[in-house]
Amino acid sequence: MARRKKVYEGKAKILYEGPEPGTFVQYFKDDATAFNAQKKDVIDGKGVLNNRLSEFFMKGLAQIGVPTHFIKRINMREQLIRSVEIIPLEVIVRTYAAGTLSERLGLEEGTALPRPIVEFCLKDDALGDPLVSEEHIIAFGWASQQDLDDMIALALRVNDFLSGCMMAVGIRLVDFKIEIGRVWEGEFQRLIVADEISPDSCRLWDVETGQKLDKDVFRRDLGSLTDAYTEVARRLGVMPSNVTHATKPTLIN
Ligand code: CDP
To answer: From the CB of residue 93, how many other CB atoms can be counted at a distance below 10 Å?
Structure first.
């Protein structure tokens, strides 16, 4: 196979040029990072799980009319996606308090919020992705007021969809982060869900036991991250539990 051109390499994924203009191939690595990459490790099988889980969530979103960048999964670690112009904001939706919200406001982790809350952080590793207000976003031109309204509406739809998916398998969606991109269709621009949706960017707690099934397992040294993500995939019926640990090539559908 001809060597592909690498377009971008991030902490957990690589983007290659796609087969057609307007497409990329998104490759999921096994690398895990936390605390702005101060903590790093390679977690066997994480990329395979996140590729499958992101496919599952993005396909489900498309089915309820939420546009995403996902086109199709190519193999165990790669998916074909639409290229988008990423809006330089992380969009966080919280239904329960955890992480930095708990620290900022002194709320016990797990406290139910009065309603889902949407927050924005500027995507800037050097600054540690600081929380920014809508005022900042408009004043600095990172997005327009119309973009902001559309991003909030999109994020809340994703929240309802993901919360329902997870609750159906006994998992509480505490919070999550998405990234949103612009695509141009003729003269019109639309905002679509981009990047990935996986346990790397969500907080997922077992409803009964409160067990964490997300990247906090890695951040807080709570056990095997692969086991946690495999449990999420297994409950959702996304993949058989032995695929990630295969030592030789395994065919998957
Ligand atoms: O995760 P952390 O405690 O640093 O920050 P947070 O603001 O409490 O994160 C809220 C949600 O967004 C969690 O589900 C994080 O996993 C996710 N997040 C992310 O995926 N990437 C970031 N750079 C920051 C947050």
So the answer is: 22
Cβ–ligand 1 distance for 175 under 6 Å, the answer: yes
- Ligand 1, residues 53, 100, 212: which to mutate, most atoms within 8 A of Cβ? 100
Residue 230 has which token pair?
A: 């495999």
Q: What is the pLDDT of residues 19-78, one digit of tens each?
A: 999 999 999 999 999 998 999 999 999 999 999 999 999 999 999 999 999 999 999 999
Q: How far is the CA of 232 from the centre of ligand 1 (A)?
A: 18
User: Which domains, from first to last, does the chain contain?
Assistant: 6-84+226-235 (3.30.200.20), 85-206 (3.30.470.20)
Task: Tell me, letter by letter, the H, E, C secondary structure of 206-248.
Answer: ECCCCCECCCHHHHCCCCCHHHHHHHHHHHHCCCCCCHHHCCC
Say which residue the tokens 């346990």 belong to.
Answer: 199
Helix (H) or strand (E) holding 181: strand 171-185
Which residues lie closer than 8 Å to 93 by C-beta, 6 or more apart? 116, 117, 118, 119, 155, 156, 158, 159, 175, 176, 178
The CA 123 to ligand 1 mean position distance, Å, reads 12
Helix axes 145-167, 46-63, angle to 10 degrees: 110
